[in-house]
């Protein structure tokens, strides 16, 4: 097991903190899945299998920044054309 990977607790009689941890872990997973879906629509190179390696994180962060900049520029242009 890799130390930095967060996995949910097993569903056997969880206490309140474990239940909350599982809920937050699941919410984080859904968020990451949604972000990858949005990025794949914009950056088609992400459709290929991604072997997660620390070096690729910088590329993914760059994609996120570029995508956010693109969306903001389009919003500005959209409001200027009203």
Write the layout of secondary structure elements.
Blueprint: H1 16-42, H2 54-80
Overall average residue pLDDT:
78
Q: Main β-sheet, in a few words?
A: none
What level of helicity do the residues show? 55-70%
What is the strand content? under 5%
Outline type: elongated
Total number of strands: 0
Summarize the structure.
With 82 residues, this protein is an all-alpha fold.
Structure description:
With 82 residues, the chain is mainly alpha-helical. The chain has one domain (16-80). It has two helices and no strands. The longest helix is centred in the middle third of the chain and has 27 residues, at 16-42.
Key structural traits:
82 residues, mainly alpha, 0% strand, elongated
